[in-house]
Amino acid sequence: MLQKRVVTGLIGFFLILILIYLGNLWLAAGLLVAIFLGLQEFGRLIRCLLPEIDTWPLYAGGLIILGGGIAGVEMEANYLPPALLTSFFLVLLFNIKHGPQEYFSRVALIGFGLVYIPFTMGHILLLRGGINFSGYDPLFLVWLPLIVTWITDISAFFVGTNLGKKKLAPAISPKKSVEGAIGGGILGVMVALGMGWFFAWPLVPVLVLGIILATVGQAGDLVESCLKRNAGIKDSGNSLPGHGGFLDRMDSLIFTIPVAYYFVVYFF
After folding, report:
1. Residue ranges per domain, the chain?
2. Which pTM does this prediction carry?
């Protein structure tokens, strides 16, 4: 299992590295695939709660939101919020034709899915090239949340496996430990500082951002675990050997990518 996890992780790392380096439509195409697979797995989750729900609005809304992200790259603006609002209005109207039965549940589940996956992950396009952050390397803007998230996740796994004693959230994720969370967070912050020094960014804001990313990334992992437990399933999918599904790998990035974007916008 560990060997599969490492091999899959390395393949994914180099694929993402290439897509981020190429940027523009290449990155958008890769993100489209990831969002589509993530929405497919999310649809599986919500059908466990509401078997009759129609999930195609998830894909339609995802395309609208991703289109807003691509437009934002071209216009150097953030068009993700209006794209999200447009797709959510369509979800409201679409569900009217099914009548009032479980209307609130259908709208809430699909609306949450649109915010949870395409809206949050769409910010990676803006970090890569949608906003002109004068003097800052766009590759660093993308790699900082990605690498801090990955290092925190990997470190928490190994520290927790070898040193973990006190359970972090046993009702949600029995294998996670307080020791793992602290160890992963410390190493994630250290990596953030190292990257900030290498790219000559002001270290105090990078330190603050590193702490936030290491914290919210682990929170994102717990949120997805809670969703899966509520749906009564162990993994969101089985498309990634040793890792589960795409949503299992996106869960932390769903939190850290938009947090990094808005932190940079408002504090840099």
Report:
1. 2-267
2. 0.90
